[in-house]
């Protein structure tokens, strides 16, 4: 892909959206999820971009956590892969999720029992999803994925893979792609960029593709490459950048007058 699209973004800023993942995209991946911080250069850059473009941060984190870490004005926030939205200063769950909360509670109880005594396993309970992180003990990754699959089958939930993590979530058709599609349509955008570094970001790329198939829409899928970036993410991207710094370089070009 050439760089002509950058000129299109500069020409019609208000109709050109910027959607960004958080971890590994505008924040360096930290050994523990609690350590991740918005890159200082990203803070300055996004502050300026948000006065010109519609901007949304779409993450797997809880939306309140995202707002606290990013905290920029004129920016929209969506958490838990589209299950939780930030509206008028508070978190709002997607209504489709509500019927599945009892099943999630049963799975939560069972999961806590089963992972007790495992070293280097961190259970991240986001209320609407349960994520098992095994970055500190990659050797049990296979076992954890099996455990998640078994719980999902028995409790009627869904499994999503991540980087050194596996997640249980309600079986609703909500993902980063439906978020991108919903906001692009709602905001009347003509084009949008989405940048991410992980499996769940492929959903967002698909959301852009769906809008393009409907016609009259320009989507730019940006893969942020790191040592752990899944190869299939790069394969389906329009643009590949090197790490957080590489993405910030690209966003600076969009900001240039
Ligand atoms: Mg990420």
Strand-helix topology:
Layout: H1 4-11, E1 16-20, H2 40-49, E2 55-58, H3 63-70, E3 76-79, E4 84-87, E5 90-93, H4 101-115, E6 122-125, E7 130-133, H5 141-155, E8 158-162, E9 165-169, H6 176-186, E10 191-196, H7 199-214, E11 218-225, H8 231-235, E12 239-242, H9 243-255
Parallel strand pairs: 1-2, 1-10, 2-3, 10-11, 11-12
Antiparallel strand pairs: 3-4, 4-5, 6-7, 7-9, 8-9
The protein binds magnesium ion.
Residues 21, 23-25, 196-198 line the site of magnesium ion.
Explain this structure:
The chain is α/β, with parallel strands linked by helices. The protein has two domains: 4-91 and 174-255, HAD superfamily/HAD-like (Rossmann fold), CATH 3.40.50.1000; 96-169, Trehalose-6-phosphate phosphatase related protein, domain 2 (Alpha-Beta Plaits). The protein has nine helices and twelve strands. The strands form two sheets. The protein has an eight-stranded mixed sheet with strand order 5-4-3-2-1-10-11-12, sandwiched between helices. It has a four-stranded antiparallel sheet with strand order 6-7-9-8, with helices on one face. Helix 4 packs antiparallel against helix 5 and helix 6 packs parallel to helix 7 (199-214). The two termini are 21 Å apart.
